[in-house]
Design a protein that fits this description.
Butyryl-CoA Dehydrogenase, subunit A, domain 2, Butyryl-Coa Dehydrogenase, subunit A, domain 1, 10 helices, Butyryl-CoA Dehydrogenase, subunit A, domain 3, 384 residues, alpha+beta, AcylCoA_DH/oxidase_NM_dom_sf, Alkylation response protein AidB-like acyl-CoA dehydrogenase
């Protein structure tokens, strides 16, 4: 029989993060979100809890857990707030994971302990202003000169790239041409504060207001040749594999938001009265919330299935795309329904569902749009 229950360790983690989210995040995130402030104190507490080091080995400063542990933590955080959840997701999946997967031992020793502790955040510099979903259309260049890489170009929509604890950005850049004439794209570590590396002001966004997102610029930015991450010319392939893992994590964030909408709607349905009754007594509300719960439950099973294949070392690209597609749809649909249940109050930023509604849309866009997920699923089915 298939058993979808979490292990004792994962369940203990889930309860710990659930308590943290309710007691530490929920009371303060509304004000931080309204001011578009990065939650430095919350991030520091998550670092002390070991959340940024969950999937990494102890010898590199991690907790010795697995990727499912990260997803469980992300889901519980996103039930309360997605800005906090995406800070953790990007810090682990996009900031530290490329170093762990492809870095030299020296690079791991230099960067991973601080990334795992949450003392430092890393960023993932893939998307470019004119590229969007076409990540292979990289225009940023890196020329090898006198023992350095000289970078020129720009990146867009980069999470965790401009905080005062951001330590590095791993950027993709064209480093030459392959024998068949195609772009040779490599990944290069650029430490924060490197001359020629600048961070634009924070974007004014629809949602994720307490998450840090910037456009980046490289103008004759020089870093040592030793900052090449992984094999030269394999940067694009490396980052595609990182995105497969990251889609499972984004699915977990989406499930958390979808479940948070259910949590808030159930509570409100008991409290809000209309025409002499609690609105939860009306079948229209009951059915709407039942559909919301069904979406969250189904999406959770989808990311569990993708994570289980990943942890077994089996191909999981299709399952990750399915999980990301299904869960982001669930988040968007549940946010819309929760806002409807709350009526006018759902349109107010002081209520969590208003924040959920603003945050949900990006989940259908970030780390591969829904259209990209459908493309990946079709390809895995042999439709090319």
């Amino acid at each position: 029989m298939i058993d979808f229950r979490l292990t004792e360790e994962h369940e203990a983690l889930r309860k710990t993060v659930e308590e943290f989210a309710r007691e530490e995040v929920a009371p303060v995130i509304g004000e931080l979100y309204e001011k578009a402030e990065f939650p430095y104190e919350i991030v520091a507490k998550m670092g002390r809890m070991g959340l940024f080091g969950l999937p990494f080995p102890e010898e590199h400063g991690g907790m010795g857990g697995d990727f499912l542990a990260v997803c469980v933590a992300l889901e519980e955080l996103a039930r309360v707030d997605s800005s906090v959840a995406i800070t953790l997701e990007a810090g682990v999946s996009l900031g530290a994971m490329p170093i762990y997967r492809f870095g030299t031992e020296e690079q791991k020793q230099e960067w991973l302990p601080r990334l795992c502790s949450g003392e430092m955040l890393g960023a993932f510099g893939l998307t470019e202003p004119g590229g969007g979903s076409d990540a292979g259309a990289t225009l940023t260049t890196a020329v090898e000169r006198d023992g350095t890489w000289v970078l020129n170009g720009s990146k867009a929509f980069i999470t965790n790239s401009g905080t005062r604890i951001t330590g590095l950005v791993t950027a993709t850049a064209v480093t030459g041409k392959s024998p068949d004439g195609r772009k040779e794209i490599s990944a290069i570590i650029v430490p924060a504060g490197t001359p020629g590396f600048s961070v634009s002001k924070s974007y004014s966004k629809v949602g994720w207001n307490s998450s840090d997102t910037h456009e980046l610029s490289f103008v004759d930015c020089q870093v040592p040749v030793a900052n090449l991450l992984g094999q030269r010319g394999r940067g694009y392939a490396q980052f595609l594999s990182i995105l497969d893992e990251g889609r499972i994590a984004i699915a977990a964030v989406s499930v958390g938001l979808a479940q948070g909408c259910v949590d808030e709607s159930v509570r409100y349905a008991h409290e809000r009265r209309a025409f002499g009754h609690a609105i939860g007594e009306y079948q229209a509300i009951q059915f709407k919330i039942a559909d919301m719960e069904a979406r969250a439950h189904t999406a959770r099973l989808a990311y569990y299935a993708a994570a289980s294949k990943m942890l077994r070392g089996e191909p999981f690209k299709k399952e990750a795309a399915i999980a990301k597609l299904v869960s982001s749809n669930a988040a968007m649909d549940n946010a819309r329904d929760a806002t409807q249940i709350f009526g006018g109050y759902g349109f107010m930023n002081e209520y969590p569902v208003g924040r959920f509604y603003r945050d949900a849309k990006i989940l259908e866009i970030g780390e591969g749009t829904s259209e990209v997920q459908r493309m990946l699923i079709a390809r895995e089915l042999g439709l090319r």
